[in-house]
Amino acid sequence: MTQATRIPVASPVLDGRELEYVTECVETGWISSIGRFIGAFEQAFADYCGVKHAVACNNGTTALHLALVALGVGPGDEVIVPALTYVASANTVTYCGARPVFVDNDPATLNLDPALLEAKITPRTKAIMPVHLYGHPVDMDPVRAVAARHGLKVVEDAAEAVGALYKGRRTGGLGDCAAFSLFGNKIITSGEGGVVTTDDDDLAARLRLYRGQGMQPDRRYWFPVIGYNYRMTNVAAAIALAQLERIEVRLAERRRVAAGYDARLVPLRQHLIPPVTEPWADPVCWMYTVQLTDGDAARRDRIMAALEAEGIETRPVFPPMHLLPPYQAPAQGPFPQAELCSARGVNLPTHGRLTDEDLDRVVAALARALG
Ligand SMILES: *Cc1c(COP(=O)(O)O)cnc(C)c1O
Q1: For ligand 1, which residues put their CB under 6 angstroms from it?
Q2: Phi then psi for 312, rounded to 5 degrees?
Q3: 280 to 137, 166, 203, 317: CA distances (angstroms)
Q4: What is the pTM for the complete model shown?
Q5: For a 10 Å CB count at each end of the chain, is N or C smaller?
Q6: What average pLDDT does this structure show over 268-291?
Q7: How far is Cα 111 from Cα 345, in angstroms, rounded to an integer?
Q8: Which tens digits make up the pLDDT trace of 208-228?
Q9: Which runs of E-coded beta strand occur in the chain?
């Protein structure tokens, strides 16, 4: 193969009114964190998720942090977080002075295994953070049942799962609140951006309070709490709104890509396991993720390097949190499923610009690498 163009693992598509809306921000001067697009985006996002409130902020990590702060998570508390997730899930718990308590995952969905939750609960447990990894929703009914039994809050990390349905209900409305990311590689993007959703009026008010430096809404420069500057700009909201207007197109593109991989990977089924869809789930395909049927992380890395040599970018599944230096002591684990799924997992290129020829190329290169 000569000079074929490189296939990136992710690529944003900005084919709606992004430029028009951003131009309006520039022409009117409303480029900072006041302006019509912020409220318009928040309303549209809340409507999309089927919840009363959406609070926009400057990234998905600050969205998670705001959610935890607004729920009252603080020093001495514990929050149950899957071992297999992106580091922001655990770090935001740490930012609060609380401790992330890790739990292993179901190997099929890669999501936290609700059957393991009860054993992790202590008198200090304050909340559970289910993460809808790579776009497949967590089995939320048992998570909510455990939370209700122990009086715990539920914060969805829905950063990778905008639009996914659990038993017909959208992510964002499946717990006390939910955090989304609008980073450049996410399903819809504003470059950097985030959103917290909730049905709870008081929680929404606290989210807005902490997002805006803690300033009391009816008293300027009066700060009853220590807040943060986590505001979204009108420019980012302009892009986010234009992206949200096209979300059904973005999701359909990803369904096409996932179906294209599913069909092409059938002959490789003895070498790899494609993503599963549980009967109660209508997932979105943020990252099409395959599990190698054998070998270790070194073999997985060699396969990824072989694809890279053919101009195909892939990503390893996240390393489990308990193996990262900040979370090695006090030791948690082992978490056998998280360790195995991480070592054998690969995210294939997943975005709306992929053509059938691109999918052919990825799968042919994968077949050669598996050799
Ligand atoms: C992307 C992501 C985040 C953080 O979002 P940023 O916008 O990058 O700060 C949090 N959790 C998960 C699971 C993510 O994938």
Answers
A1: 59-61, 85-86, 88-89, 131, 157, 159-160, 181, 183, 194
A2: -120, 115
A3: 9, 6, 29, 24
A4: 0.97
A5: C
A6: 97
A7: 13
A8: 999 999 999 999 999 999 999
A9: 53-57, 78-82, 99-103, 125-128, 153-157, 165-166, 169-170, 177-181, 194-198, 272-273, 281-282, 288-292, 315-316, 345-348
